[in-house]
Structures are given as C-alpha cells and as structure tokens.
Amino acid sequence: MKPRAALGLGTAVAVTAIGGALAVALPMRANAATGGVTGFATQNGGTTGGQGGQVVTASTGSAIHTALCNRASSSTPIVIQVSGTINHGNTTKVSGDSCNTAADRIELKEISNVTIIGVGSGAVFDQLGIHIRDSSNIIIQNVTVRNVKKSGSPVSNGGDAIGMESTVRNVWVDHVTLEASGGEDEGFDGLFDLKDDVEYVTLSYSILRNSGRGGLIGSSESDTGNNYITFHHNAYSNIDSRTPLLRGGIAHIYNNSYTNLVESGINSRAGGRAKVDNNHFKDSTDVLGTFYTTEAGFWQVSGNIFDNVTWSAPSGDHQPAGPNPTSNTTVSIPYSYTLDGASCVPSIVAQTAGANKGLQVSNGNCVPTSPTGGPATPPPTTGGPTTPPPTTPPPSGTNLSLSGGADGSSKASGTSYGNVKDGSMTTYWSPSGTTGSISVKWSSATSVARISIREASGATGLIGAYRVLDGDTGAVLATGSGAGTISFGATSTKKITFEITGASGTPRVAEFEAYAS
C-alpha cells in the first residue's frame, strides 16, 4: 500500500445539506431494523436467496461446490451454512448439471436462488475469492474473505474478495468482513468489484479494510451499464481509493463510516450519479469527487460529516467535491429507508458491521438491535461437511390463480382483490391498513403445494409476518416472514388465503400465484 498522504493539521467538522431537498424527500421507514434485505436489492422482484430451500452444511470449498452441483437444477433454492476456513487446499472443481464451478475460487456461475451464510464460530475464506457471474438472487452473509491475490501465490478471482460480472441481478451481501494486506504492489486488487452488467445489489453492515482499492462499479469508462447499487452502514478503513469508484449508473451511499482514505474516496465519474447521505468521513483525503479522468460524474449530498478531511486543489483530471461539497444532480431513490444521524455513524457501525456481530442492525436511532425478520443466524453446526440428501424438482407448472377468483378481508381505496390474479405487476391489492388477508379461490377442489407472493414496485420488503391458510378448513399450511415463494404439503382445497399479520407499511400484493408443485 502506498504511504499515507499528509492530512490537514486542524480538525474541522462540516455538515452539508441540500436546502430544498428535505421538503421533497421520500417517506422513510425503519427498514434496516428488520434484519432483512434492504436497498436496491429489494427492487426488481426482490432478493430472497435460497429461502425455502434445502439447508446444507459445509466446511470446505469442495463441499460448497458439491452442494450447488447436487441440486435438482441450477435454480433450485438452497441455503449453504458454512463454518471453518475455506482455502485452496480444500477447494476443488466439482461438476454437475446444476453448477459451473472452478478450483481457484468459490464459483457462483449461471445459477440462482442461493444463500451462503457463515455459522458457528465463523466462516473464513482465506486467499480464496467469491465470484458471481451470470447469476441472480444470491445472498452472502456473515463471512470473512481475506487476502485474495491476483499476483503472487496463490492467486484467486483476479484479486477480488467478492467480484460480480456479466448479467448479475439481485445480490445482497451483508455483515461480511472483506480485507487485504496491502495494495496492487502487494498483489491485491478490489474488495468488492462489479462490472459488465450488474444491477440491484446491496452491500450492508460490512467491513472493508487494509486494501489499495475498496471496489468499483464498472471496469472502464465504457463499462457504464452497471446500475442500482446501495452501500449502507459499512466501515471503510485504511483504503487508498475506490470507496467506491462509480462509472455510470446510480449508487445510494448512506450511513457509512470512512477512516483513513489515503488518496481518494467516493469517485463518481463517466456520468455516474451518487446519492451520498449522512456518512461520516474522518482523517482522510479527497473523500468525494471525480478523480483520474476528465469524464465527470455527479453527486447529491446531504447530512455528511467531514472530520479532518483534506481537499486537494482541482486539476484537469482531479476534481474534488470539497472543501464545501454541494450537490450537482438529484437522484431519486425508489425504496424506503431510515437515516441514522452522521454523528453517531462511527459508533453504530462499529457495533454492527462485519462478520460475527450477531447480524445486529441499527434501529434507525443509532441503537443496535438483533434482527426481527429476514435471515437469522443459524445455530452452530458440528462435524464436517455433509452430503446433501436428494432434492426434489423445483416448483413448476401453470399459475393456477389465473383461472380462479379472488377475495379478501379488506381493500384500500383504488385497489382490487382481482388485481392479484390478473398477471400484471402494475396493478395490486392493498389492505385498508397494514394487515389483512387476500385469497384465491376456485369452483372445485384444486391441489396447491406452493404460492408466490410478489410485491409491487416500491413496496418490496413491507410484508412482515404471515400465515398461509386452507380456506376450506382454516388449517395453517405455513408461517413465516416476508414475501416470496412459500412451499407446503400439497393441499386439495377450493381456497388458499395469504394472511399478513405484520408489516412495516401498507403492503401491496401485485400477484398471488398458486402452483400444484
């Protein structure tokens, strides 16, 4: 890593805000306090990972690959609980119809509906990167990835701790620790790199440290097709640059703590637009601007604190936003969120960010809290890797709701029960409050084994606790939290009811799909 640049001698704190922006801010809710997926990963249908799938344990890279390859298909949901140290010595290429793996990395290629979560005393990917390519609906949670190299020995994943490329959609990376032991001269590259058509990604409650490069969105000035990335409640420390580097697209960057950014920080360029809210920058240089190019980027700033930040003089390819950053664009955010005050961000992030912190999140008032919804820390595992038992084929077939009717407990003004079975994501049903029930029904008994609850755009993540009922008998078929795919034992009935018993806002169910298998 390059020597640290000199910083200003004084300690100055400046808080910037957009004068008129607060009056038109979107409604906010304490989404972060649920422990579930947040940010742009909630959009485009949402991110559920392997929810509802088989749970498999693994303590080697080969076991992770084997679990992927033993699925019935490349889209069969699976949750892989990982413990111990994953490294080159225990990672091999495994072949199968439902996977495409490699020996020098954890390869998530041409697959979907996967959760990888650290359990027990921890999961460490040592000198072995995680690569996501041509894949969708992936969750990575509660793991450490360290010292991944692109030169020297051993090498892995082009030197990226976590890298995504080539048509990747809906990824949530949460409560992870990504770290290196130097910069490019020492053989390392980026900690979190996204390129070649990656969209709808959230990085939350994570630590990124001791690296020359934090991460990039877009690999060159022509790679501007990556979009809709959220960074929140992350701790960046001892990083030379790229926190992140944004080429084109939109990034929402809020409630992050930045310490000792040596050369530059958030680098918006080539038309990129960053919404930068309530972050805390300390002991750093040129934390926001367009750097190393003449192709400008843009930013909207509000509520940030700059503590002992040094700003360089502008030059042709070096355009810092400071010393008094002001907005030069506006960025519309489609999801709800709650901002912690920038002054307490270092404290709340120190308590919640990174692996092995119990997946704690902020309650929106700078207080850590254990998650109440979404993925929870699984119980510790024992023993070595297990061979996954045979899986059943993924649910498939005709959406039975399209041939049925619909009713419910109540409906908000302007909505209709029938909107949940019209095959359109642009119409929806809402209850008159935050809870209520919606049903699909048929004139004769119909066998149903799976339903899919799809939330309307702008309302993903609102549904909390639910029950699925046999409308004929009142029997409870399934319970859980959050929308998505819900499977249960095949039931012959004239009516299936989805009952929302908890929500963080007024739900909008765009489609209630029912399937026989």
From TrEMBL:
Instruction: State the coiled-coil residue ranges.
Output: none
State which residue ranges cross the membrane.
none
Renumbered residue ranges of the record's region Disordered: 358-424
UniProt keyword list: Carbohydrate metabolism, Lyase, Polysaccharide degradation, Secreted, Signal
Q: Which residues form the signal peptide?
A: 1-32
Q: What is this protein called?
A: Pectate lyase
Under Gene Ontology molecular function, one entry of this record is:
pectate lyase activity
Name a single GO cellular component.
Answer: extracellular region
Name the lineage: Bacteria, Bacillati, Actinomycetota, Actinomycetes, Micromonosporales
Q: Where is the composition biased (Pro residues)?
A: 376-396
- Which stretches does UniProt call biased (Polar residues)? 358-367
Localized where?
Answer: Secreted
Mainly resides where? secreted
